[in-house]
Amino acid sequence: MDGAGRLARSLRSLRPEADLKAAAIGAAVLLREYFAEHRARRRARRAPPVIDRDPPGRFILLLERYLPRRVGIAATVFILLGSTGLGIVKGGHVDDFVTGLSDARNALANSAGFRITTVAINGRKQLSQDEVLAIGGVNGRSSLLFLDAATVRDRLKANPWIADATILKLYPGQLQIDIVERKAFALWQQDGRLSVVADDGAVLEPYVSRRFLTLPLVVGKGAETRARDFLALLDRYPQVRSVTKAAIFVGERRWNLRLKDGLDIRLPENDVGNALAALSRLDKEDRLFSRDIVAVDMRLPDRLTVQLSEEAAKAREELFKDKKSKKKGGDA
Predict the structure, then answer these.
(1) What 3-state DSSP class applies to 49?
(2) 71: enclosing H helix or E strand
């Protein structure tokens, strides 16, 4: 039992194993520290930079707490839209913008099969089909789907020639327009301007066409609205109506007649029918309208005053002179 020899061999045999184990443990520790440091660096690179700032105020905290999420985005969009709208208004592009939107939606509707392919217009006489469509605001870009029938009707009725209108939309592409036209009733002269008027006094258009030349002529302020009743009364006396050139409304109270030969008939304010009847009778019995006179005044109810022409007045004066001289010669 060599205790000393065996002990020395055992210690020599165990020393390499201990050194290997210690080296392995050290390497593991180094690797773990290396990877930990590497991960820390990567996290540091990914993390956003920290900016030192003052803590938000109380009002900001309340807003962040009680306002809905993404309200800031909505507010930004609202501000941008408001700025765009303000620019459109300030730049005077509102009509262009509205027209563009209308054309865009009409284009979509037309592509979907709602294009106006057939238009039927009934009741027109003075206006052409193109004029009716233009007045109503219907054009080649209009779609039946987005056509506002009430708006078209209001536009048509705003035209003086159209008394009433009915709009009918027949899907997918037919539009029917029924109109009631006013009739040209008389020519109205006021302040040197001549216009064509309807029987209700509506001014239809300035007088530019000879097709209205045969219409009766009324003159004076208010004559356009009072002409229908007076001309209807005058029609009862064709003897007078046939020689009348113009009816003149005086002071918005009464009428005068200007005959074709220049004779003026001054009618009374009241009881005009009896005055016209008396005038017609005088012409039949005494050929009044053929006399050498320039005016007949019927304004007083108990008398009729006749104004002679200048030549007739001189002839009458000479006649009286002759009668006086003959009478004096006979007395002598």
Answers:
(1) coil
(2) helix 71-90
- Determine the length of the chain: 332
179 touches 123 (CB < 8 A): yes
From CA 28, how far away is CA 36, in angstroms rounded?
A: 12
pLDDT digits over 215-250, tens only? 999 999 999 999 999 999 999 999 999 999 999 999
pLDDT in tens, 293-302: 999 999 998 8
What is the token pair recorded at 313?
A: 């007045």
Residue with tokens 């054309």, as numbered in its chain: 103
CA angle, residues 288, 293, 299, in degrees to nearest 5: 75
Q: Annotate 149-216 with DSSP letters as a single string.
A: HHHHHHHHHTSTTEEEEEEEEETTTEEEEEEEE----EEEEETTEEEEE-TTS-EEEES--GGGTTS-
What are the residues whose beta carbons fall under 8 Å from the beta carbon of 142, sequence distance 6 or more? 106, 116
